[in-house]
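User: Let's play a game. I give you a shape written as tokens, and you guess the letters that built it. Ready? Here's round one.
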């Protein structure tokens, strides 16, 4: 018989009656459970619900907090005191390798002889028992990974909160820093349903409060706290981030994207490793002991090291992540102190994300939001000289400004010219909400462009081609080359031409025979546009029907027909240039040629195909 919903059973406890701590498992809806930590009668901390399979044997690894003696005890050996303090205050529970509870909590001093598993007796004599089976209990050396990571952490503190039920009127701790002799505490006061205020309490200096502000008690809260010793040095002004902002001298709290509290009294000196979240370990008089809702730290940014030319790929994590109103996906810092980055902001309560390149206080945002949960990987390309990204051969005399190009799925959503990467070595930090890879990571085994054998890859026909560009900022394209295939006397040239009414056509100029043109279409000047080209003569496998010619613009097919095409050899394909002097276009593409991608899937040119 399965435990009924809401039932709590003890996994383990430590301490003496009246001074003990308990780790419970609470059962929820069928197949769901969570861990609950109880610090005697002073409060509880809750983990996230997770799926369970009744009857399945699972491995639990429980470490820290109520299993350890006080910091400074000889048991810790030669570990530095700050590492001992992190270990003692952190309780971690993993089930079959997955983290299911990780919180800062208070706990009494412990020893192996004071620990009990699968049962706990209340001081009034009532005994609670775990209804499952604890097959074995083994002691192992304490794992220091979390302590070492927290000590190495830097930058602002970011939390994801869910309020506890029936919390109106209560005061709960969000953050504490300092030492027992002098400390700061940040407290949330649930004023009344739908409204909260924040309180900054400093020992010896009294308390001060924010204004009341509205929050959705049933929703997820994203809170960022900046302190002098924990600051990303990024200020957001009206959805525009400014890197290298002066380091804050006070506490600054951003709640769901809005700055809500900057108390006048600066915090006492502390360090990033000494910050405690969701627990009142230093006994502030204005708050209870534990934050009794859900509190999780958002993953810190990952140090990616030096960045060179090439591409980066970001694969969002399974947790979804990027739930806040805005944030930094990728930050670059140069040795001369300059900084820039790829940033994001939410388009609406349930909308996608706008991506932006931010440099020197100016941000260029994508024109349309993207849905990373649906689209998946973000691909970022960097060049130093302005040459088109991808497979296009470099032109002579490229522009001095480099490029920063962002693609989500097959769509190019952001393209910016910048000198940032040509002005010195840049180091990068990426969002911790996913995985980063790519040859632009100079420490990566994938760095460089040579094939594994060291030889240059053999040229091949390009297959389907996606050509991405912008029209000129001032003016338009008159008639420009997009792709040329073949040789003098036997070449096909794809060109883009503007009509007198302002519309455009794509055409094929078949040497000495004539032209074939698409239906007219519009090109909005600020947008990034994509031309898809599918020609039988470019198919490296020879499987495309003879003479097939298909053009698409921004995902819509505008021409699909059979026509005469000259045979093409590998190495006879050029992009954005007309070296053979075909009369239907200028010598060089007049717009901004952003990228050329070859060997594309049909769905990359026409979604859903």
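Assistant: Ready! My guess for every position:
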């Amino acid at each position: 018989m399965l435990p009924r919903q809401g039932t709590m059973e003890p996994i383990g406890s430590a301490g003496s009656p009246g001074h003990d701590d308990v780790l419970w498992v609470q059962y929820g809806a069928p197949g769901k459970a969570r861990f609950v930590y109880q610090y005697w009668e002073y409060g509880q901390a809750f983990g996230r619900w997770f799926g369970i399979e009744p009857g399945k044997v699972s491995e639990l690894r429980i470490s820290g907090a109520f299993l350890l003696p006080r910091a400074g005890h000889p048991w810790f050996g030669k570990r530095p005191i700050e590492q001992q303090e992190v270990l003692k205050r952190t309780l971690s529970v993993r089930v079959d390798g997955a983290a299911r509870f990780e919180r800062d909590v208070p706990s009494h001093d412990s020893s192996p002889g004071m620990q009990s598993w699968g049962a706990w007796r209340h001081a009034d004599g009532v005994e609670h028992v775990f209804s499952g089976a604890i097959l074995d209990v083994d002691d192992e050396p304490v794992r220091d990974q979390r302590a070492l990571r927290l000590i190495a952490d830097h930058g602002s503190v970011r939390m994801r909160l869910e309020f506890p039920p029936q919390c109106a009127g209560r005061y709960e701790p969000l953050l504490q820093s300092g030492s027992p002799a002098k400390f700061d505490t940040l407290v949330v006061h649930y004023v009344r349903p739908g409204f909260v205020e924040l309180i900054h309490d400093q020992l010896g200096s009294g308390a001060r409060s924010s204004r009341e502000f509205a929050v959705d008690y049933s929703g997820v809260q994203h809170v960022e706290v900046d302190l002098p010793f924990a600051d990303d040095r990024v200020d957001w002004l009206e959805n525009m981030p400014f890197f290298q902002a002066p380091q804050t001298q006070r506490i600054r709290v951003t709640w769901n994207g809005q700055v809500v509290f900057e108390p006048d009294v600066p915090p006492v000196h502390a360090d990033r490793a000494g910050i405690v979240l969701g627990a009142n370990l230093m006994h502030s008089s204005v708050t209870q002991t534990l934050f009794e809702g859900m509190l999780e730290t958002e993953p810190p940014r990952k140090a990616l090291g030096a960045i060179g030319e090439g591409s980066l790929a970001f694969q969002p994590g399974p947790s979804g992540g990027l739930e806040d109103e805005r944030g930094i996906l990728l930050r670059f810092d140069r040795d001369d102190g300059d900084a820039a980055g790829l940033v994001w902001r939410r388009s609406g309560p349930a909308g996608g994300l706008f991506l932006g390149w931010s440099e020197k206080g100016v941000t260029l945002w994508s024109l349309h939001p993207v849905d990373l949960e649906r689209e998946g990987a973000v691909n970022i390309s960097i060049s130093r000289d302005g040459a088109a990204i991808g497979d296009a051969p470099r032109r002579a005399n490229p522009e001095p400004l480099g490029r920063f190009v962002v693609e989500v799925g097959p769509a190019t959503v952001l393209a910016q010219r910048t000198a940032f990467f040509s002005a010195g070595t840049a180091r990068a930090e990426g969002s911790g909400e996913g995985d980063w890879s790519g040859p632009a990571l100079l420490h990566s085994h994938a760095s460089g462009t040579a094939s594994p054998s060291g030889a240059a890859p053999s040229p091949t026909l390009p297959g389907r081609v996606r050509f991405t560009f912008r029209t000129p900022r001032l003016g338009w394209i008159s008639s420009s080359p997009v792709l040329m295939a073949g040789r003098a006397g036997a070449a096909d040239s794809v060109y883009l031409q503007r009509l007198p009414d302002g519309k455009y056509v794509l055409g094929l100029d078949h040497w000495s025979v004539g032209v074939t043109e698409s239906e007219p279409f519009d090109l909005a000047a600020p947008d990034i546009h994509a031309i898809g080209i599918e020609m039988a003569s470019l198919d490296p496998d020879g499987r495309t029907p003879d003479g097939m010619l298909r053009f698409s613009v921004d995902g819509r097919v505008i021409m699909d027909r059979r026509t005469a095409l000259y045979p093409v050899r590998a190495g006879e394909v050029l992009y954005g240039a007309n070296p053979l002097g075909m009369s239907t276009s200028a010598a060089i593409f007049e717009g901004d040629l952003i990228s050329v991608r070859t060997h594309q899937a049909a769905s990359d040119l026409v979604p859903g195909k």
